[in-house]
Amino acid sequence: MAEDGILVVDDDPLVRKVIQRALERAGYRVVLADHGAAGLAALDADPHIRLLVSDVMMDDMIGSELVAAARARRPDLRFVYMSGETPENLPLVGIDATTQAFLAKPFKPMELLEKVKGVLG
After folding, report:
1. I need a labelling partner for 9 at 20 to 30 A (CA). Which of 19, 50, 60, 98 fits?
2. Rounded-to-integer distance, Cα 31 and Cα 39, Å
3. Is the dihedral of CA 116, 97, 103, 92 positive or negative?
4. What is the rounded distance in angstroms from the CA atom of residue 116 to the CA atom of residue 121?
5. 3-class secondary-structure state, position 20
6. CA nearest 111: which of 99, 103, 119?
């Protein structure tokens, strides 16, 4: 599990830290980025990233743009969106919380781990 990485992209440093702590305690290797472009650079630099956990609303790009760019590089990359937006507003930014992996903020570390395990299989 530690060989495979999880890329966490969120513009809030506290959110990144909480997610990092929860995932590392569960044995995952975590790579952090504070915006979409940094996330893509991290993905390009690390061939072992298997999962992208992305905030929906960021300054430089929205989560669906980041996921599309990331999956263009790695079609097998899995992803989880997270947002404080209500699920009803997410289709406006290209995300369907009913059919895509999604976590509503705030969430508990156990909810994050369950979602990650479910997406990674």
Report:
1. 98
2. 9
3. positive
4. 8
5. helix
6. 103
Six-digit token string for 98: 């009913």
What is the residue-averaged pLDDT of the chain?
Answer: 91
Q: How confident is the model at residue 91 (pLDDT cuts 50, 70, 90)?
A: low
Domain carrying residue 37: 5-120
Which candidate, 1, 5, 25, 14, places its Cα nearest to that of 109? Answer: 25
Question: Which pTM does this prediction carry?
Answer: 0.91
Report how far residue 71's alpha carbon sits from residue 81's, in angstroms, rounded to the nearest whole number: 14
What token pair was written down for 73?
């590089």
Are the beta carbons of 10 and 20 closer than 8 angstroms? no
Q: How confident is the model at residue 88 (pLDDT cuts 50, 70, 90)?
A: confident
Other beta carbons within 10 Å of 1: 10
Task: Write the CATH number for 107.
Answer: 3.40.50.2300
pLDDT 10s digits, 41-67: 999 999 999 999 999 988 889 889 999
Structure tokens belonging to residue 84: 């404080």
Q: Please give the tally of structural domains in the chain.
A: 1
